[in-house]
Amino acid sequence: MFGFTFYTPTKVVFGKDTEKEAGALVREYGGTRVLLHYGGASAVKSGLIDRVKASLDEAGIIHVELGGVVPNPHLGKVREGIALAKENGIDFILAVGGGSVIDSSKAIAYALADPDHDVWELFQGKRPACGCFPVGCILTIAAAGSEMSNSCVITNEETGEKRSYNDNIARPRFAVMNPDLTKTLPDYQTESGCTDIMMHTMERYFTQGGNMELTDEIAEALLRTVMKYAEILHRDPGNYEARAEIMWAGSLAHNDLTGCGNDGGDFATHMLEHEMGGMFDVTHGAGLAAIWPSWARYVYKDCLPRFVRYAEKVMGVRDEGQGDEAIALKGIEEMEAFYHRIGMPVNMRELGIVPTEEQIRAMAVSCNEACGGSQGSAKVLHLEDMANIYRMAL
Ligand code: NZQ
Ligand code: ZN
């Protein structure tokens, strides 16, 4: 195993009606003037925004609103938030939504701490952040794990580039998680979220070494749990216990718990998907489901022991003397069957996109550039590998 630093400073407040604590939590973390940041219509329609505003009022906290964050959040909205926050002397960003709203909030928070530089430079890898205003969140979808992660993913809608920037200083101060809030989600978003949650753990699982037994066991339990409750939610979306299991799994899948001791993880599937999100604006989790089977078939021989362990311990494949490669391939097939059972695609056509050869090249070039020339641990991928995986996923 490798040494590691496990840093998870986010206070989690989990359970029914916890959004009522928003005002007190902002105050606890020093906020006095809040930018209340949210997405399209869902949080307004459900009355959540009104409940959060009431909680802020009760705590005597001044607030300014900015809604309209779209999935695969735009740099333009980040810039709007920066300007509004500066005008109003904002000292705390409260995100009410999912990964897109939380990431938009993190980007605004980086910019407020460094007003003389363009925040997009962080995402271009030109410089590290020198600070970050405090962010808190009220989670409305279990998926991206941004509520406890150090990651922030923004799309530059003018260039079509979707880029991430990771820094521990952006981890939210608190995350309010009320599973009831996720009951209004469309099924497709719930299931895309489950796929993303699993992938955050799988990215850390398929590596060339350094994994600890304890980390592996936690990862496998998390994956089996998400699969079980994803199927329950597919049939019974109003099931609170199932929503709670999935919500907590989403945070643990991406707060680095399932990466302790490994080599930093693979993350090629994520990098490949980010290009699909940037070019075609697909839902992140569904995009992952569409590309993972092709990635897996492309790399499994280079990481065979992990694929065999995954097949046996997560997908329930039995060793009946068929040989390691057959076991690994069966595990991938079982994963595809699971995706289908919860209504997820297993290739780009099923996802609803059919990139041309020119678009595949453009995605591969951009992905390779975003990765700095190569990506992966299970198998190190270069430009041609990336293009090949996109072609396999057609
Ligand atoms: O805007 P509204 O109306 O709220 O609709 C949203 C949106 O259309 C809807 N939604 C959210 N909560 C709802 C709801 N609808 C009804 N009821 C609710 N309670 O769901 C849609 C998706 O929301 P979004 O925030 O985009 O979902 P998610 O949490 O999956 O975030 C995806 C973004 O996060 C990035 C992705 O790339 C993508 O841009 N990621 C961020 C990560 C991080 N920061 O650590 C890691 C991930 O790997 C991921 O890359
Ligand atoms: Zn993800």
Stretches where pLDDT falls below 50 for ≥5 residues? none
- When the domains are counted, the total is 2
Q: What structural class do the secondary elements suggest?
A: alpha/beta
Q: Order of strands side by side in the largest beta sheet?
A: 1-8-5-4-2-3
* CATH-defined fold name of the largest domain: Dehydroquinate synthase-like, alpha domain
Biggest β-sheet strands, sense, barrel:
6 strands, parallel
Strand content: 5-15%
CATH superfamily of the largest domain: Dehydroquinate synthase-like - alpha domain
Q: What's the architecture of the largest domain, going by CATH?
A: Up-down Bundle
Instruction: Give the CA-based shape.
Output: globular
**Which CATH class of the largest domain is shown?**
Mainly Alpha
Percent helix, as a range, is: 40-55%
Instruction: Note the run of SSEs as H and E.
Output: EHEHHEHEHHEEEEHHHHHHHHHH
**Structure ligands:** 5,6-dihydroxy-NADP, zinc ion
Tally of DSSP β-strands: 8
How widely separated are the two ends?
37 Å
What is the residue-mean pLDDT, rounded to a whole number? 97
State the helix count: 16
- Radius of gyration (CA) equals 20 Å
